Amino acid sequence: MGESMLENGKISTRQFTFLLFCLVTSSFYYNMPQQKIAHLQQDVWQIIVISWASDAALAVVFQILGRRYPNLTMMQYAETILGSWFGKLVGLSFVLLFASGAILYLMDISFFLRITLMPETPIFVFSFVILLVSAYTVNAGLEVIARLSEIIGPIMILSLLVVFSLNLNEIKVINLLPMFQHSPLVVFKESLRTTSVFGLCIVMGIFMAYHNTPQEALKAKLIAITSGAILAILILLELIAVLGVNMNSIEFFPVFRMAKYIEMGGFLERIEPLMVIFWVGGTFVAITILFYSTVLGFAQVFKVSRYQSLTPFIGVGVLLVSWLSFRNVTELNFVIERVLPYVALFVEVVLMLLLFAVSYLRHGKGRNVLRRGKK
After folding, report:
1. Cα distance between residue 177 and residue 78, in whole Å
2. What is the pLDDT of residues 278-300, one digit of tens each?
């Protein structure tokens, strides 16, 4: 088992929490609020509640599987549960989902930087620079990524709270009404994208193998997604209360727009470039987490002895696919809204429940299947 671990680093519960928090929260900076407010108006907060509940339930499944197959990642125990060939296929599905997430996050931040800050700069330049630095961080190992998340995570929280608190005087409560105007079925359908984004936290199935106290993995996951959900609801409600439904529906990056509203006493204004730096940092961590999970996953599925040797090849692949697939934000939004949710939820929910069910059918009840097998 030792030779297949590939990663010798260990992360703490605090680091585990911030890794998942950065992954969940980063998507709220860009066009997700605009799309969801356009569809659900004042009911948009309900999709966050649904996504939180779904991911919390999924976290319990990962906690159980992680305890049953200690020190193994999801790609590794997929083979233990389903056998070599089918297990590899399921493990590869996880890896391709992580790669897809990295591509979409990379394009999200690249389009954001080009549209808001440097419209004359080719989109490829942003993607290349971000991915180059990310590749260096991936090769440094999980502990480096985890320490980075410990620094960036609190800054992300602070930046969102600053935007929230300094716009309180602009709130018009009447903009929050009426609520509960959409049927549960409509809300559930619109929640699929945010549920799939929350579901990217299935990287818990990787991190748990390197967690120094794996029995606390569920606690870390719940803290991360709960704090992310609370911040998302606060920001969504304030966006509506400050900008109104109509403005949010046409504004590509409404959180950035709200940051531009901030002005205090004539001395605190134009802070949005500082906010952008913080948000780029958070998204960089999210991209690096997914990039790392992709590289490590490929190495484990195909039994490569050193995952770092795959980093440049996978990096080039991610860069080319992202560059050739999306010419503008509209194409990116179509994939995020109409394709990603169904593919991601199949991997995150259906395949994970399959692993869970077959694990109990093949290996019976009990906590540590591997220890029992050795006996």
Report:
1. 47
2. 888 999 999 999 999 999 999 99
Residue 178: asked if its preceding bond is cis (omega within 30°), the reply is yes
Which residue shows structure tokens 């409600």? 237
Give the largest Cα separation in the chain, rounded. Answer: 72
pLDDT digits 0-9 by tens, 52-111: 999 999 999 999 999 999 999 999 999 999 999 999 999 999 999 999 999 999 999 999
Measured at the alpha carbon of residue 13, what is the angle toward residues 7 and 15, in degrees to the nearest 5?
65
Distance CA 227, CA 355 (A): 28
Token pair belonging to 290: 């997914």
Q: How far is CA 343 from CA 111, 200, 340, in A?
A: 23, 12, 5
Model pTM? 0.92
Q: What residue ranges define each of the domains in the chain, with the CATH number in brackets?
A: 16-374 (1.20.1740.10)
Closest Cα to residue 8, out of 217, 200, 296, 304? Answer: 296
CA–CA dist 88, 78 (Å, integer) = 7
